[in-house]
TrEMBL record:
PANTHER family: 2-KETO-4-PENTENOATE HYDRATASE, ACID HYDRATASE. Residues 77-257 form the Fumarylacetoacetase-like C-terminal domain. GO terms for molecular function: 4-oxalocrotonate decarboxylase activity. The gene is dmpH. This is 2-oxo-3-hexenedioate decarboxylase. It is an enzyme of class 4 (lyase). Its EC number is 4.1.1.77. Transmembrane segments: none annotated. It comes from Luteimonas flava. InterPro entries: 4-oxalocrotonate_decarboxylase, Fumarylacetoacetase-like_C, Fumarylacetoacetase_C_sf, Hydratase-Decarb/MhpD_sf.
Length: 262
């Protein structure tokens, strides 16, 4: 049974308020078992509208479930996506207040900054790279609004794929001729290496994740605007953080970025 517009708005408001009030809730499919993937993206759209209405600017997009292992675990054959708002952005090296978060974790990613707009269908890696202004190292802070990070696929899509904060480096790198498959990534917490990885962890190539995003947006009548920041997906496993932690990511040829939790 398709969910009514009123129910979609009710779920979006629940998740919006949970983030604002820094409180966790049970996954939405517990109360709304008919919530499917299509309806979950409608909830995400309604959540975005609530944020835009209060003055948040749309900055870009993010990809989730971009490892084949995670997709298999969730029983899907495609990644998922969410949006990035101006309320998610953190300056390089800045402090993030843990009191504003529920149970944060960090992941290392590669950010694409798009010079040109991209429209599906059948977007290719080559088209993505040609449309990319620059690449930047990134840390995404994920913070599910669900109790104990417990969710299913529709619930996490509705919750904007656990989007919370992100930081990107300040030194832009050209995408031309760069081997994104074998590029090395190191995630450090408090000066200790906690995760290492390579670009191939993201669908074999992070640019492929961006191409898939473009096609997924096209399927819903949307496109990827010029100027968008795109977090292409986690290269490392998520690492829990708390007040007092300092996190840094270093990516071969792209430099580093970091943030502090207070």
């Amino acid at each position: 049974m398709s969910l009514s517009p009123a129910t979609i708005e009710e779920i979006a408001t629940l998740l919006h308020d949970a983030e604002r009030d820094v409180r966790d809730v049970v996954k939405v499919t517990d109360a709304q078992p008919d919530l499917d993937t299509e309806a979950a993206y409608r909830v995400q759209d309604a959540l975005r509208a609530l944020k835009l209405a209060r003055g948040v600017r749309l900055v870009g997009m993010k990809m989730g479930l971009t490892s084949f292992a995670k997709m298999e675990q969730m029983g899907v054959d495609t990644p998922i996506y969410g949006f990035l708002g101006s309320d998610n952005a953190v300056d390089d090296g800045a402090a993030v207040e843990t009191a504003a978060l529920i149970h944060p974790k960090v992941e290392a990613e590669i950010a694409f900054v798009m010079r040109d707009a991209l429209q599906g269908p059948d977007c290719t890696v080559e088209q993505v790279l040609a449309a990319t202004a620059c690449l930047l190292p990134a840390i995404e802070v994920i913070d599910s609004r669900y109790e104990n990070f417990r969710f299913d696929l529709p619930s996490v899509i509705a919750d904007n794929t656990s989007a919370s904060r992100y930081v990107i480096g300040s030194k832009a790198a050209n995408a031309d001729g760069r081997d994104l498959e074998s590029i090395g990534v190191v995630l450090e917490k408090n000066g200790q290496v906690v995760e290492v990885g390579a670009g191939a962890a993201v669908l074999g190539n992070p640019a492929r994740a961006v191409a898939m995003l473009v096609d997924m947006l096209h399927a819903r009548g949307q496109s990827l605007p010029a100027g968008s920041v795109v977090l292409s997906g986690a290269i490392t496993a998520a690492v829990a953080v708390e007040a007092g932690d300092h996190v840094q990511v270093r990516i071969d040829g792209l430099g580093s970025t970091g943030l502090r939790f207070v």
